[in-house]
Amino acid sequence: MDLRKIIRDVPDFPKPGILFKDITPVMENPAAYRQALEEMTALLDGVPYDKLAAIESRGFIFGGPMAVEQDKAMVLFRKVGKLPAKTRQVTYDLEYGTATLEVHLDALKQGDRVIIVDDLLATGGTARASAQLVRASGAVVAGFLFMVELEFLGGAELLQEAGPVFSLVKYS
Ligand code: AMP
């Protein structure tokens, strides 16, 4: 199945000039959703890792099912104020605006090899900030995994020093 045909383009969301790649039709199609999860998992073949760190909120769509299927821990990187226990924070620039991400202090341990998961790589700012959270916890970035990459925004170049980048559907 061609996931490219199922992902929907929404122009001018959330603000004028942004072409939003809407992945919700993928999850509404069980075969497509399963295919996306299986193919994303396959991208990690041969990559040793201990935990998946999924970025709120669309990273959870992929991180949860993959973590269960692969028998790995899933760690939540959440927007500020959502996690109940003690956290570490990072603030970063987005394609549109700024944001803060948090992780529980005890969620990542020294030496954990972590795959950072999100739905889409745009400028790479969110993923790079997530890598900072991983390293600040004493853990190691084993790689970055996305369902969609907007190659023309150069996110992979921004991330290349932090770890290998794996993405399923690329728009050039
Ligand atoms: P960035 O930090 O620029 O790589 O942005 C990545 C985050 O913003 C991801 O969590 C995406 O869900 C979201 N995002 C940014 N740009 C788009 C876009 N054009 N279409 C869909 N989601 C986007």
By DSSP (H or I, 4+ residues per run), the number of helices equals: 6
Q: Would you count the extended β strands for me? A: 9
Q: What is the distance, rounded to the nearest whole angstrom, between the alpha carbons of the first and last residues? A: 20 Å
CATH topology name, in short, is Rossmann fold
User: Roughly how many Å is the radius of gyration?
Assistant: 15 Å
Please explain how this structure is put together.
With 172 residues, this protein is of the alpha/beta class. Helix content is 30%, strand content 35%. It has a 7-stranded mixed β-sheet, with helices on both faces. It has a two-stranded antiparallel ribbon with strand order 1-2. The mean pLDDT is 96. Helix 6 links the parallel strand 8 and strand 9. It has one domain: 3-Layer(aba) Sandwich (Rossmann fold). It is built from 6 helices and 9 strands, in the order αββααβαββββαβαβ. The protein binds adenosine monophosphate. The site of adenosine monophosphate has 19 residues, from strand 2, strand 7 and helix 5.
